[in-house]
Design a protein that fits this description.
This protein is of the alpha/beta class and 350 residues long. It has one domain: 3-Layer(aba) Sandwich (Rossmann fold), CATH 3.40.50. 40% of the residues lie in helices and 17% in strands. The strands form three sheets. The protein has a seven-stranded mixed β-sheet, sandwiched between helices. Strands 3-4 form a two-stranded antiparallel sheet. The protein has a two-stranded antiparallel ribbon with strand order 8-9. The longest helix is centred in the N-terminal third of the chain and has 27 residues. It is globular and about 70 Å long. It starts with a strand and ends with a strand.
């Protein structure tokens, strides 16, 4: 299996990481059974992900997502205190918004006030939003990003986890092959849309010291708001807010993916991400529906269609060495195939 790091951001990222872990364990177990027969079941590595894969999810919400199969067996990531599969980034943001609304943001929270203006902060009604992002960012992407910045002021669990993942993958890398780093999430909500770019930037900060400047690729798998059509049809203006999040995030992603690099993003007094190349070597925009093309998954809940499809696509790369630069899109699978049908993919190249 090709060594890779996979990071899931927000709720969508948690679902993708969960499906991928389950699929990777099954793939690994089947390989062990072919090699050792029934004796494989007694081996310590049986029932665990392959050692070449390091995956984890990042979210403000600590509630696990649970995958259930046809036999009603449940599967989830490890959300324990010392878990290596989940990084919690919720933080309070009311004081930040109050300060920036008063015009004292540059004094109190300069690293956030540099990108969140007073006019933008005044759009938030403090009397109706929660004091923190614990449990969710309310589909407000700026609040998801504030949470990440505030968390990084005192808690370096996320950068430490990213650095550890790079070191682990480097140990299993063969020859001069580039390491594959996948960052996946949705641009429709608050956490994924607000933190995807920063997670990729932090990866660029740590990866060059482990792999070398040209020894890795960051591949983005980004879910678009149309994927949530079935979930939001009866939710009033929810889709409008999702589309606004998606538009803002895509503008930023376009700039960061096409920019040559050479910029810095300061997160705390001791952490500034330095990006010297385009943010993503390859960026896929995944939508649940494109009329007349591929299989329409927009009428299924994302966790039942699009999210597992993304997990399957990543596993295909890990198990078979698929060159993502040669993949244009994935359509429906042939009739009778046991493989999961995939949604429509668009591609941005640097």
């Amino acid at each position: 299996m090709n060594p890779a790091v996979v990071i899931g951001a927000g709720g969508t990222g948690k679902w993708v990481a969960t499906y991928l872990k389950r699929a990777a364990i099954r793939y690994h177990d089947e390989a062990l059974l072919r090699q050792y027969g029934e004796a494989a079941r007694q081996r310590a590595e049986f029932g665990r992900p392959p050692p070449e894969l390091d995956l984890f999810a990042v979210d403000v919400d600590t509630v696990p997502v649970v995958v259930k199969d046809a036999w009603h067996e449940s599967f989830q990531l490890d959300y324990g205190t010392d878990s290596q599969e989940f990084v919690h980034i919720s933080a309070g943001y009311r004081l930040v918004l109050e300060s920036i609304q008063r015009g004292t943001g540059q004094r109190d929270y300069p690293l956030i006030a540099n990108w969140l203006s007073q006019d933008d902060a005044e759009c938030y009604r403090l009397d109706i939003i929660d004091a923190s992002s614990l449990g969710g960012a309310g589909q407000l992407r700026q609040l998801g990003r504030i949470s990440l910045f505030m968390r990084l002021q005192s808690d370096l669990a996320l950068p430490h986890r990213i650095a550890a993942a790079c070191r682990k993958v480097a140990e299993g890398r063969r020859g001069t092959a580039k390491a594959s780093i996948f960052v996946t999430g949705s641009v429709a909500g608050g956490t994924g849309s607000g933190t995807l770019i920063d997670i990729a930037a932090l990866m660029h900060h740590f990866a060059p010291t482990v792999f070398g400047a040209n020894g890795y690729e960051v591949i983005g798998l980004v879910v678009l708001p149309t994927t949530f059509f079935n979930v939001t049809r009866a939710a009033g203006d929810e889709m409008v807010r999702m589309q606004a999040n998606g538009y803002a995030a895509l503008r930023e992603l376009l700039r960061f993916t096409t920019a040559p690099g050479g910029y810095q993003i300061p997160y705390s007094a001791n952490l500034t991400a330095t990006v010297t190349k385009p943010l993503f070597s390859l960026l896929y925009l995944v939508e649940g529906s494109r009329q007349g093309q591929g299989l329409d998954l927009s009428f299924s809940a994302p966790q039942d269609g699009t999210d597992p499809a993304i997990a399957d696509a990543i596993l295909l790369h890990l198990a078979h060495g698929v060159d993502y630069k040669q993949v244009k899109w994935a359509g429906t699978t042939p009739t009778g195939s046991s493989a999961r049908p995939c949604c429509t993919w668009s591609r941005w190249r640097r």
